[in-house]
Amino acid sequence: MKQLLALLLLAGALPATAQIDPVLLRRVPRDTSRLQLNMDAVYNRPFVQPGRLPVALGGYVEANYQYAATDGVSEGHQFQMRRLTLFVSSSIAKRIRFLTEIEFEDGTKEINIEFASVDVEFSPLLNVRGGVVMNPIGAFNQNHDGPKWEFVDRPLSATQLLPATWSNVGAGLYGKKFGATWVVAYEAYLTNGFDDQIISNTQNRTYLPASKLNPDRFEESFNGVPLFTGKAALRHRRVGEVGVSYMGGVYNKFEDDGLRLDRRRGLQVWAVDLTSTVPKTRTVLTGEWAWVRVNIPDAYSPQYGQRQAGGFVDLVQPVMRGTIFGFDRAVLNAALRLEYVDWNRDRFAETGGLIGDETLAVVSAVSWRPTAQTVIRLNYRRQWARDFLGNPPARTAAVQLGFSTYF
Predict the structure, then answer these.
(1) So which residues are the signal peptide here (predicted)?
(2) How many domains in the chain?
(3) What pLDDT sits at residue 352?
(4) With bands split at pLDDT 50, 70 and 90, how would you rate the model's confidence at 29?
(5) What span, in angstroms and rounded, lies between the C-alpha atoms of 80 and 399?
């Protein structure tokens, strides 16, 4: 028993190349077919299983240097430890498996359970998932691992319009239907949802990510009404993948101990995502666009938008493949990101003029991948942010150099 306990501790604390006999380590096989979907990202990761232990381990880390200035004002040179994420998975039985993802952000400023679910597989078209599930709104929310991206920052629309890595306690169904060149898939979950922090927050705007600050959502629902999230995706072997998703529910506490406080106020989010690769040039196109609609109380000022929208488009072009600096199969990429978020698409009731509160950004990147699981990236960011009143935009420029790698 003592030897087994020691081996478990070593397996969790040391990397695969440490003092464990390499013979006892084996890579957990992954589905390497081309018909992978964004919904498969949670399991489509590199895992190592030490010996005969019933668990497989993995994770990733990302850190960077940054120098940024807004209208000529800068905080100087900054080194940032963005996140350290750990994966643990286990095949409990032939068609029962468990996976958890635990993330440490900004050192240990935030510690989050992003995923912790049991999957029971009845058939390819019918599978049950329960626990802490990742709501499948858009594509980035599920396929967010740092080593998969050429950019240091996550997209604005995925982090400040939609709540990136948005997960809740709940359960639902998912499945896939395979063909020779096509795969069709779906996901549908009922979970705990948002709270009134989306309109009562330090951002002073309608801000869905504020609900991530409520740790009680893993213990109880804020208002007792489930949040529904559903997605349908279609992938062609040569063309790529397109997904359509919806998330909707009630965010306010409309009743307390049988006492009526307010009418039910809902929110709806629609998203479309696209992933494609041009065969001849191997250019990768990734895009996502989301629309948000929130029922705001009449007493709130117009700076709290009822309608929001935003998205991003990434273009990644390999420019060199082969042996680079002694690394076989290395890749040098050039990339470009265009992103836009409008937190308030309403109009002033008094004048009929458009309300501001929007941000546009362009990010260029050069990335070097010594292996498929590691990326070293240099980014240059230009950003224009217009305030609620529509004043001339604040201009930001930033240089970022960082890395991200699975381990």
Answers:
(1) 1-18
(2) 1
(3) 84
(4) low
(5) 13
Beta-bridge partner residues of 9 = none
* pLDDT tens-digit series, residues 78-134: 999 999 999 999 999 999 999 999 999 998 888 999 999 999 999 999 999 999 999
Residue ranges with strand state E in 240-373: 240-250, 255-256, 259-260, 266-278, 283-294, 307-324, 327-342, 358-371
Compute the average pLDDT of residues 162-191: 95
Judge contact between 140 and 155, C-beta under 8 A: yes
Q: What is the pLDDT of residue 144?
A: 95
Q: HEC states along 156-221? A: HHHHHHCCCCCEEEEEEEEEEEECCCEEEEEEEEEECCCCHHHCCCCCCCCCHHHHHHCHHHHCCC
Rounded Cα–Cα distance for residues 164 and 156 (Å): 9
pLDDT, tens digit, 9 for 90 and up, residues 330-341: 999 999 999 999
Look at residue 52 in the predicted model and tell me its pLDDT. 80
Please enumerate, as own/partner, the contacts of 377-384 that have beta carbons within 8 Å and a separation of 24 or more.
377/150, 377/151, 377/152, 377/401, 377/402, 377/403, 377/404, 379/151, 379/152, 379/153, 381/68, 381/153, 383/359, 384/359, 384/360
Q: For residues 150 and 82, what is the distance between their CA atoms, to the nearest angstrom? A: 15
User: What's the rounded Cα separation, in Å, for the pair 207 and 192?
Assistant: 18
Nearest alpha carbon to residue 371 among 334, 336, 320, 406: 406
Full domain range(s) for residue 165: 2-406
Dist CA 387 CA 358 (whole Å) = 7
Q: Average pLDDT, stretch 49-75?
A: 93
The predicted structure's pLDDT at residue 109? 87
CATH code for the domain in which residue 313 is found? 2.40.160.10
